[in-house]
Every structure is written in structure tokens, then in C-alpha cells.
Design a protein that fits this description.
The longest helix is centred in the middle third of the chain and has 22 residues. This protein is globular. It has one domain: HIT family, subunit A. Helix 4 crosses helix 6. It contains six helices and five strands; from the N terminus they run αααβββαββαα. The protein has a five-stranded antiparallel sheet with strand order 1-2-3-5-4, sandwiched between helices. The chain is α+β, with helices and mostly antiparallel strands.
Length: about 160
């Protein structure tokens, strides 16, 4: 089965992009390893960002396709916050970050790459993780392949699920 995205590859950059929502398409594919979905909860799921700001960059996404946070019911909003908290704990266990950036970009003017399906970003951070490459070359250095990040996070999640 072909991946929805082929990260870090020139053929993806040059290819014609599929219309529709990348999050809904990932869910519909039912191949979590290929789409980098690390966890499916009751009302939201977590997946690796295929264009990460940093290693382990996760997105927490409601199943409901909505661009408006206030359109989501209270239970979904609460589930999103609980899942954000869990992703932070999973990332702490998997990668030992020294801090996190957590947030969401709403609307094109707000910097959203996907404007019609809201999502939160959970980005692990380490002291000195931004360097001259970002400033001078407008390039980020990611030291771990997405497949490796997915396997590391799934191992943490599976240990937690077995212990529950």
C-alpha cells in the first residue's frame, strides 16, 4: 500500500497533491504505521507530523472534521486536552525532551497548513535544538526517521496499555 505522503522526497514535492483532508484520508486508510497514526482514542487521535519541526512532532486531531474549535462538543474538547497531556507523557518517556511547544494554528492567516480540520501540535524541544541551519539555511535537521519515531512512541503506548 502506498503512503499518503512520501516525506523528504523530491517526487512528493513535485507531484500533484490529492484533494481532500489529509487527516480524514489517514483515518480512512486504516494503516496506522503507514500514516504515522500512533494512537486512536475515543474522540481524537495522535499522529506524527510528516513535515516535523523537531523529532517526535505530534499532532492531536479530533475525528470530527471541523475548522472551528467551538463547534466541537465539550466531550471532544476535553478529550483533545487529555490526549495532548498523554502525548506529552509518551514523548517524555520515548525521547526525554527538556520542554515542549503545544499549540494550534487556526486559519490560513494563522499559519494553518490544513485549514479545514483543526489540530494541535505537540513539539518536543531540547536546549540548543534550533541552530544555524534553521537561521541561515532555512533548513531543519531531523536526526530520526519517521518510522523510527513511530516505533519508539508505539512501544511506550503499548507498555502503558499493558500496564492499565
Amino acid at each position: 500500500m502506498q503512503r499518503l505522503w512520501t516525506p523528504w522526497r523530491m517526487e512528493y514535492i513535485l507531484s500533484e497533491k490529492q484533494p481532500g483532508c489529509i487527516f480524514c484520508a489517514a483515518l480512512a486508510q486504516h494503516n496506522d504505521r503507514e500514516t504515522y497514526i500512533v494512537y486512536r482514542g475515543a474522540r481524537a487521535f495522535a499522529m506524527l507530523n510528516t513535515y516535523p519541526y523537531n523529532n517526535g512532532h505530534l499532532m492531536v486531531v479530533p475525528y470530527e472534521h471541523s475548522a472551528d474549535l467551538n463547534a466541537l462538543d465539550a466531550e471532544t474538547q476535553a478529550d483533545l486536552m487529555r490526549l495532548i497531556g498523554r502525548t506529552i507523557e509518551w514523548l517524555r518517556a520515548a525521547s526525554k525532551p527538556e520542554g515542549f511547544n503545544v499549540g494550534m494554528n487556526l486559519g490560513k492567516a494563522g499559519g494553518a497548513g490544513v485549514v479545514d480540520h483543526l489540530h494541535f501540535h505537540v513539539v518536543p524541544r531540547w536546549l540548543g535544538d534550533t541552530n544555524y541551519m534553521t537561521i541561515v539555511g532555512e533548513t531543519r535537521v531531523i536526526i530520526e526517521m519517521l518510522d523510527d519515531s513511530w516505533m519508539r512512541l508505539r512501544a511506550v503506548i503499548e507498555r502503558e496499555e499493558r500496564a492499565a
